[in-house]
Every structure is written in structure tokens, then in C-alpha cells.
Amino acid sequence: MASPTTINEQEKTFRRLSKRSKIFKTIIQALQEKKGENIVSVDLRKLPEAVADYFVLCEADTAPQVRAIADHVEESVLKTLKEKPYEKEGFSSLQWVILDYINIVVHVFRPEERQFYNLEEMWNDAVQEQH
Q1: Are 43 and 15 in contact (CB under 8 A)?
Q2: pTM for the whole structure
Q3: Cβ neighbourhood burial of 109 (10 Å; 0-12, 13-18, 19+)
Q4: What domains can be seen in the chain, in order of their start residue?
Q5: Mean pLDDT, residues 41-65 taken together
């Protein structure tokens, strides 16, 4: 069994992201620069079943705009923080593109896909903020 000192040291080294984190700010700014619509961040940090600290969602009317937004987020994070997404999905159909940065997962939807999957409702017990 670990001593209380060890547990406290572990708690101090475990840090969750905040809205003030550079990656969060960079992602929001990139979405806004490429005219992502209905940008919402979902703060999942207090939900034990959550797979990330934040989901950031936005939508675009056309497939080329979905690609442009996702590409711009990826380029901005790489340029600013030298980070690549751990995983990315959806570039073949461009209906719902996901960029997974482990603690933040970016979702760029076509409006129909966003409405159908309704992630905001699925995570409705999390704090959500419009950007």
C-alpha cells in the first residue's frame, strides 16, 4: 500500500487541461479563423466515464469546408505546439472529422451529422460553452 506522501505526490503531478491551456486556445482560434460554425466546448473533466478532458465541436456546410477547418486546426496545433493528433478519422467522407489530441478531441461535422449524433445531448451533464 502506498504511503500518503506518495499518493499526494501523484495527485500533484496529475494535471487536467483547462480552457487557458495553449492547445485549447489554439484549437478554438483555428476553428474561428476558418469560420467554423456553432463552436461548442464540452468540459468533460468532472465525468469519470469521459475519454478526454474536452470535446470541441463545430460544423461546416460543405465537405471542402470541413476539410479546410480540420486541416487548419491540425496545422495550427503543429505550428504552435509541435503536436500532431494521436489519431484522426473521417477524412475519406468529410461528414464528421475527428482530431484526437488525447486530452482534447476536436469534432468537425456537417450539420446533418452533428444533429444525428447529437454529442451535446449525450454529454448534457457536462459544462458546455459557446465560442
Answers
A1: no
A2: 0.84
A3: buried
A4: 19-123 (3.30.460.10)
A5: 93
